[in-house]
Amino acid sequence: MIHRFAPLALLALLALLALLAGPLPASAGQYETLDYHIQQMIAQAAANDEAGVQTFREQLDNLRRPEAGDPVQSRPLFQQGQEYLNHDQLKEALSAFRQAFITDPADAEIAGQLGLTYLRLRRMKEAERLLVYALALAPARSASWLHLGQVYGQSGDTARAAGAFANAYRFAPDRSRLAGQLRQLATTDPADAVRAGAQRALQPTQPLPAPAAKPGAAANLLPPAASAPVPAQPAAPAPTAPTITGPAPSTPPASGVLLDSLRRGLSSLAKPADTAPPAAGSRSIPTAGEQPGQQIYRSSLPRTCLIVTFRRGKTDSLGSGLLVSADGLVVTNHHVIENADNLAVKCGERESVARVSRRSKEPDLALLTTTLNRAESFVLNEAYSPDLIGLEVFVIGNPYGLEGTFSTGVISGLREIDGVRYFQISAPISPGNSGGPVILRDGSVIGIATMGLKKGQNLNFAIAAAELIHSGLFDPARMKMSTAQGKGR
Amino acid sequence: MNSGFWKAVVLVAAWCAVAPALAQDSDRSRYYIQQMIDLAATHDETGVTAMQRMLEQEPKPPPRDPAAAREALQRGQAALRADDLNAALTAFQQASDNDPGNADAVNHLGLIERKLGRLPDAERALQRALALEPTRASAWFQLAQVYGLSEDNRRARGALANTYRFAQNPMRAEEILRNIAESEASDTLRTAALEALRLYQLPVEAVIVPPMPANPGIVPLKTTPAPRQKP
Question: Environment class of residue B23 by beta-carbon count within 10 Å: exposed (0-12), middle (13-18) or buried (19+)?
Answer without folding.
Answer: exposed
